[in-house]
Design a protein that fits this description.
This protein is of the alpha+beta class. The protein is 29% helix and 19% strand.
Length: 181
């Protein structure tokens, strides 16, 4: 059995306005416009209800990587990076350990949920950017965590970035090969 599909005619704004300017009728001395034609309601897809939870937010940077980190209180210890589990996003266990180390050092590994959005840089730079973001968020959560995180070096932003290329050189400092003849 083949169902017939009705084509919905697209109406422009001008066409709708032209239909709305239908002659006005006088009713007991008052002018009232005729009924305005209404468009067909569009098909609305029901979305999953979004549960808004309060969160704390911080930014972490490393080389070219920028991470925006959200911390949700009363969580189960889940860490997601770009809508993936951090163990799936970061390919090695070393990078996973870098990301989770601030939570373990203050004992919050299974008490909060972390959601991070990272862009730019490489895998290692992204992992260290997320680590800095998590450490900054933990300090917002409880100022007493600052001493432990500072001592472990998680609150220090690593300032080393790639040096810019200079004029007349091949890279930042690499000179062209010298030729005797």
């Amino acid at each position: 059995m083949i169902a017939k599909v009705k084509k919905i005619k697209k109406t422009t704004k001008k066409a709708v306005m032209a239909k709305a300017k239908v002659s006005k009728k006088k009713v007991k001395g008052e002018e009232k416009p005729a009924a305005i034609p209404q468009e067909r309601p569009a098909i609305v897809r029901e979305k999953e209800p979004v549960i808004k939870r309060p969160y704390l937010c911080a930014v972490g940077r490393r080389k070219e990587a920028i991470a925006t980190v959200r911390l949700y209180k009363n969580g189960k210890g889940g860490i997601t990076v770009n809508k993936k589990l951090y163990s799936e996003y970061f390919p090695t266990s070393e990078l996973e350990q870098i990301v989770s180390s601030p939570l373990k050092s203050v004992g919050q590994a299974d008490k909060v949920d972390i959601e991070a959005k990272v862009r730019g840089g490489g895998m290692r730079g992204q992992a260290e950017a997320v680590r800095l973001g998590i450490a900054r968020v933990l300090v917002q959560l409880n100022i007493n965590f600052k001493k432990n995180l500072r001592k472990a070096g998680f609150l220090t932003r690593d300032p080393r970035v790639k040096e810019r290329k200079k004029y007349g050189l091949r890279r930042a400092r690499r000179a062209p090969q010298w030729q005797k003849r």
